[in-house]
Amino acid sequence: MEPDYQAVLEQVAEDIAPQIGHGRPAEYIPALSSVDPRRFGMALADVHGQVYGVGDWQEPFSTQSITKVFTLALALARGGDSLWQRVGREPSGNPFNSLVQLEYENGIPRNPFINAGALVVTDRLHGLTGDARGALLDFLRTESGNDRLDFAPEVAESEAGHGDRNAALGYFMASCGNMHNPVPTVLDHYFWQCSIEMSCADLALAGGFLARHGVRADGTRLLTRSEAKQVNAVMLTCGTYDAAGEFAYRVGLPGKSGVGGGVLAVLPGRATLCVYSPGLDARGNSVVGVAALDRFTTLTGLSVF
Ligand code: DON
């Protein structure tokens, strides 16, 4: 039997209230540093599309790295598993924007969720569609049922203006033959991809295919059951960067964070959750977001373990 999800979310909100405001919003992009650190929202979409929520669950925020899950799914759906020749599936144990490993490993990023790996995925999706950011936005609008979803140009421009590290990653991979489109094109699509604004409800609905073993909101299939398992597995092991071990220990679900303060998590076969609170820890994950997911799985006993 399903728990009373609304009651559980309300309990979670009450339990984490003392922690609201902990952590610091991302500061490396001016467009992200100005958000109110006290915001908190959480939504759950069950596999039938029923949504429950608390707090600021309908407020849009900057999705940032959460989009990496969706570009990965689209690149696999359209281009198949040859992608894995260009990007690995191992946790990096390094910060999300780290450069060091890439040279030792000949320009093959450890996984698709660190920035280097996400650039490869965006490059692949761009090669497959001719418009990586457009393909992503279309997909997110369709799956969330929200046609108003859009890019935030000021965030994309701010990102581009502070994007030297991402440029370094892109050009280094190009020097190893692991960028197939011009680096400035890939960076541009990546920055716009990260700027998409969505609410917890939008993200929980858009990620529904991950809980439905690859099946989209309209009943058609995006990923095979096996591919959906693989994406969830990489989320569990790599979705929160060098804190993935701690996240798995505390939350016990596949999850993907973004420096905008969102975290998407999947209860395979049951539901997708999204929590938002902009205060980040030192590894770039939402302090209250992780605490809320920890509380959710503890209260319900629902996790992949
Ligand atoms: O590449 C960047 O720096 C950002 N646009 C995305 C970073 C991000 O969200 C990493 N996450 N925790």
Q: What do we call the CATH homologous superfamily? A: DD-peptidase/beta-lactamase superfamily
Shape: globular
Quick one: biggest sheet?
5 strands, antiparallel
How many helices?
Answer: 14
- State the domain count: 1
Any ligands, ions or cofactors bound here, and which? Answer: 6-diazenyl-5-OXO-L-norleucine
Give me some keywords for this one.
305 residues; Beta-lactamase; 14 helices; alpha+beta; binds 6-diazenyl-5-OXO-L-norleucine
Tell me the layout of helices and strands:
Blueprint: H1 5-16, H2 30-33, E1 41-46, E2 51-55, E3 61-62, H3 67-79, H4 100-104, H5 115-129, H6 132-144, H7 153-161, H8 164-175, H9 183-194, E4 197-198, H10 200-206, H11 208-211, H12 225-238, H13 244-250, E5 255-257, E6 262-267, E7 271-276, H14 287-300
Antiparallel strand pairs: 1-2, 1-7, 3-4, 5-6, 6-7
The structure holds 6-diazenyl-5-OXO-L-norleucine (DON).
Walk me through this protein's architecture:
- The chain is α+β, with helices and mostly antiparallel strands.
- It has a single domain, classed as 3-Layer(aba) Sandwich (Beta-lactamase).
- It has 14 helices and seven strands.
- The protein has a five-stranded antiparallel β-sheet with strand order 2-1-7-6-5. Strands 3-4 form a two-stranded antiparallel sheet.
- 6-diazenyl-5-OXO-L-norleucine (DON) binds next to loops.
